[in-house]
Fold:
Amino acid sequence: MKLTEEKLDLIVAKGMAFSLRYTIPLLVFSEGNINPQTATGIIIRTDKGPALATARHVIDGYLGLKDKGRIQIGAMAYVLKHLPSERINISENVDFGLIYLTDIDVHKIGWPVLEQEQISFKHPKKMDLIAYSGFPGCWKTAHDEEKVMGLGQFKCVGMVETVEDDQFSVRLDDMRYELEGKSSLDTSLFHPGGISGGPVFSLFDFWNSKMREPLLIGFISEGMAWDYLTQKHFAVNTKSVEALIKT
Structure:
């Protein structure tokens, strides 16, 4: 298949819409704290049922708050607290974890669940076209009088740059990502913290030149920001956490 500019634009638009549909905002906070930490995740179907998938350090942050710890999921302000240990499954090797949800949780959160058929457990390849989004903590604004949290959103389309056994990286520049929702703020203050746990989707079978639906291939673990125009993000690949999702 010849990849024209028009087809590429269509693939990118479809892929980003897919990312925005499934990527979910998270807030981790202590009871009574009006300055929560932002994070990002996705609800996926595991062999044990639906689960919130995000970075391990996000879940560790919640656990560190002990009895006062709270995780708010999605736009409807649904909060989890006092989670028993059997509802949490954290990787020992990579920055990834799961919080198992009940059907009632999923209904109240009001967010779609990504099915296992939409997850690729193959290693990504260099040059793979990917998309992801998230909610940078540097843009959160608390409005005390309204008791709501405003979040800016990060959106990115890029290519896989490096591949290792358990992770891959994406290098960004100002042509590859968008910052929305906080246009009044100085974008030079952008820092990638808050997009941790964001799902990364492969948009196109680059090496075989085949059109297909987007597939989940990883989860953002960390990012480095030299300045707001120069970013590099690392992601845990789904292959390294296949056992957690399938058992």
In short: Residues 5-22 form the longest helix (18 residues). The radius of gyration is 17 Å.
